[in-house]
Design brief:
- Helices cover 43% and strands 20% of the residues.
- By secondary structure, the chain is of the alpha/beta class.
- It has two domains: 7-85; 88-234, Trna Endonuclease, Chain: A, domain 1.
- A six-stranded mixed β-sheet has the order 3-4-5-6-8-7, with helices on both faces.
- α1 packs across α3 (39-50) and α2 packs across α3.
- It is elongated, with a radius of gyration of 20 Å.
Length: 239
């Protein structure tokens, strides 16, 4: 089995994704040349990655591109590969990561709030935890000012979503939600005004560790804010 951590394989995959953005077709010689590899090695990498024999010219389907992005993630080069994903593919990859971490997932949720209509790209639910994720496939650099409006939208849409729909999805216990902005490259800061800003490269690890009892996360409740459910219980007991 090929080791997808090696640099050449990662470069070949990332370059294939970049060159097939428009029509899905690419010449193997071009992939090898631009990835710093020989055509023979590029052909071998892609044959292994796609599970079929690759010749001089290759046609890449939407499913192929998604699978190549998954391999890039395993090889630690998802940040390079993600730059070549469309916004639909970016959301699909986010959905896959959530499902792998045990979340139930809905995409492109549109709903009427108290004063306007809202949209959330991806919503993941696991027990009492709800993640409301806005996927931002922005090109670097990621200036702080670039996030201002996105942060306001993420925070407000999460609150509106909880007030309108959370109880229908979670029948028992409190609901704890996190507004998240997901980016291709590392953001200038990890949180902004109660919103988590996370790069796609760190998503899988974050999903494995996050819970309603995670310290220091800006949880939102359907009718009020709470930094952490443990602290909320302590406050209620008057400690």
């Amino acid at each position: 089995m090929r080791n997808w951590n090696d640099e050449i394989s990662c470069r070949v995959i990332a370059m294939t994704l970049r060159l097939t953005q428009k029509d899905g077709r690419v010449d193997i010689d071009e992939v090898g040349s631009k990835a710093g590899s020989s055509p023979k090695l590029a052909r071998k990498v892609l044959s292994d990655a796609l599970g079929r024999q690759v010749k001089s010219t290759i046609s890449i389907t939407a499913s192929d591109r998604f699978n190549l992005a998954l391999l890039a993630a395993r090889g630690g080069s998802l940040d390079k590969a993600a730059e070549s994903l469309s916004w639909q593919e970016f959301e699909e990859f986010t959905e896959e990561c959530l499902q792998d971490a045990g979340f139930e997932v809905e995409r492109n949720i549109r709903f009427k709030g108290t004063s306007r209509r809202w949209q959330i790209d991806v919503v993941g639910t696991r027990n009492q935890l709800v993640l409301c994720i806005d996927c931002k496939r922005w090109k670097p650099p990621n200036y702080k000012s670039k996030f201002t409006q996105a942060v306001l939208h993420s925070k407000a849409s999460t609150q509106e979503f909880l007030n309108s729909f959370a109880r229908a999805r979670i029948s028992e216990g409190d609901v704890f939600a996190l507004p998240i902005i997901l980016t291709v490259k590392d953001p200038p800061q990890a949180t902004s005004d109660g919103v988590i800003i996370l790069s796609i490269l760190k998503l899988a690890n974050f999903l494995q560790q996050v819970s309603p009892f995670s310290e220091g996360l800006p949880f939102i409740l359907p009718s009020r804010r709470a930094q952490n459910p443990i602290r909320a219980v302590t406050t209620a007991l008057g400690d």
